User: What shape does this take?
Amino acid sequence: MKRPKTLLVYFFLSYFFSWIIFIMLALNHHKIIFLFPDDAAHARTQDVWHALGGFGPFLGAIITLKLFFNKNSIRNFLKSYSYKDLTTNRLIIALSPILYLIFAIFVDRFINHEWFSVSDFFRSNQLLSPINFLAWFFPLITYGFGEEAGWRGFALPFLQSKYSAFVASCILSVFWVCWHIPSFFYRYELNSAMLIGFILGIFAGSLWLTFIFNYTRGSLLAVSIWHFTWNMVSMIGQTEMVAATMSTLIMLLAVYVVLKYKGKNLAPFFKTTFLEKYNSSIA
Assistant: This one.
């Protein structure tokens, strides 16, 4: 059957291209191989290497479309990045993580009686240097756009062709969480509680991104901008209260979408399937 074979090929390719980078960085972190000194002084070097792993889902999508579908599929894939599809409402939703950060800063001020300083974050991480800033900024772009090209650009409409939007999001969440596993060994130091929070965050984020994808009728630009903007505010808002507030907002938004629009579409419009997006059957 074409359906499971195609999806498995896609996930294999996405994991393969990303995990090459992730595993190399994990081995470097544990001093099994040497790529660069893994210390605070070389954090920006790790950022650049880590950024390359974000291209995995994008490459997986492009190659799978090329292998299994007609020549117009890649053209339709790229058309999903058209800015012409971004209405004012869609753009506000795509950039909404900035609003989450602003709200979280006010919550932090109310509870801790002091203002969170964005400028202090940039100064303390030496990001006022253009080179350091670009190295820090690079993975925000590659993961925001590289991941969404695959997760929402290929896997979600593929899964929504058979399953409800809710079930498709849940299945995708499992693959999305597992895709990160090698990076736990060099970039994310997660204890048990943090790991549970990470998994819940991925699950909630998947539901919310499915809403954005279906609400915008399959706009990859919208979900990519949201993911990129979320990455940026998550990196900036790393204090406990700000981070917790933003994570809670995502979970509340996910619950709202499920209650408001139900599991079939998770949006006010019908879910975007592979056939509708690429004009190609996957039966």
